[in-house]
# Entry
Amino acid sequence: MATGGQRIVEDVPAAVLAERIDQAAAALRKARYVCVLTGAGISSESGIPTFRDALTGLWAKFSPEELATPEAFERDAKLVWDWYESRRRLLREAEPNPGHYALAELERRVPKLTLVTQNVDGLHQRAGSSGVLEYHGNILRDRCTLEQIVADRSEDSRNGLPRCAACGGLLRPDVVWFGEPIPRGPMLGAAAAAERCDVFLSIGTSSLVYPAAGLAETARHAGATIIEVNPNVTELSALAQFALRGPSGRVLPALLAAVAD
Ligand code: APR
# Structure
């Protein structure tokens, strides 16, 4: 994956937002196939900081690009593991928020829905979404660096680094780092969904990181209606017919209620 760019805030009066929600809901009611792409923003109301918010505390001096790369892991596996362990601890205390639950419910309200997430936190599945395509992997899984498969941990952890129970190889988190390819299944599934959907919902993502950001462009070129849920203007905003400016934990339940009306 690759990245670049910055964010701008747009103030939208409540009445305008309500009108846009109604219009977006009308598009969703007519849709036969909905593709949803989520990013870090949807989990921020569960207490998980987004990637491009400043890292806090101990990690303030690092950027995600310095920690989430194969080169960083080769240089200092212990540093990278310490960062991932701190994120896992945060995640163990986190719960899905109303935005996650609204998407799980939306799946039951439309004929077909594919949910693609860039998030590695598993919160969509915990909220009840099914068939989630994990574009960037899952932080709660370990992968063996020798066998390249999801693996269990050995009791033996030399130098404080986790080892594979089967072969003793060094483990890494089962996530996609900068410069690495997207896993084949989610990549193909997401591409097909973007190509075939009639509504594409982009939620809580800066739309800076490719190839995920390209899914909305694919959908737009194929004629889909693009709905964006984000408090801020993003790289995608110019392509979106409906920009719903607000936190997803509030906007998505309102959108779901309007769809159900
Ligand atoms: N509701 C909706 N959107 C929100 C909220 C919220 N409550 N809070 C913040 N946002 C928006 C921000 O305005 C921003 O556009 O969420 C977006 C988060 O952007 P990023 O931090 O760039 O996260 P994301 O787009 O998911 O990053 C993509 O980059 O570092 C990699 O692999 C990592 O999957 C990640 C990828």
